[in-house]
Amino acid sequence: MKTTFYIALALVCSAKLISQSSCCAKPASTEAFATLTHDKKFVATHLEPLPFTLVSPIGKDISFKSADGKEAHAYEIKAEKPTDNYIFVIHEWWGLNDYVKQESEKWFTTLGNVNVIAIDLYDKQVATNRDSAAKYMGMVKTERAEAIIKGALAYVGPKAHIATVGWCFGGGWSLQTSLLAGKQAKVCVMYYGAPEENTTKLSKLNAPVLFVWPEQDKWINKDVVTKFETNMKATKKSLQVKSYDADHAFANPSNPKYSKAFADDAFMNASTFVKSNLK
Question: What is the pTM of this model?
Fold first, then answer.
């Protein structure tokens, strides 16, 4: 495959005309993944989403201050009883749409007494076609995304126990969110997202990771997964990989490549993983 995660990473470094060490001082994994928005084959594999409107949402849209002083947006579902357990949900490249809100509600119902914060890294921009999705994902700046996440961490407070989950774009940012959460991070689920390659950063990870991987994915491919396994082992961090004979975005019900059987199984494994670690 001409464009791979590693080629994309090299392009990021060369485009910025900086050394490998300084490139990796930033969350290079998410930046490298964002360069795939210029790959026509990557864009084409994300088929147009099926229309969907969430009826009678149980949560509400909220605003909070991000670390850079600006306003940030999220979808929040509060637990019925006070609890310090939170799950941060990170959207895929379409943005914080009604499908992600529906998935957030599914996590809320399944986990029980937990608060849900579905973080919006697109600042209220929601894509309805792949061209706009590629545009929005490509526009995400690391500094702004981290500021939003830090704002969400401040919003929930220092006593919060935090789980993270995300898909595609959000899969990579699920891991970055767990890294930013420090000792508050209790568990991380990544659906076919870009792993962090910087072992210095990974060495500070507090949460065990479940990586849901579709074996037909041409971008988050076997080489990417193997290197992630190697890096996690080298830093003595916990990683479980659950693979499926499926393609990228198989867990998204708005994607024509959606596989209900695989998606249901992946969710069962992911929710069980979160329940056993979010304490």
Answer: 0.89
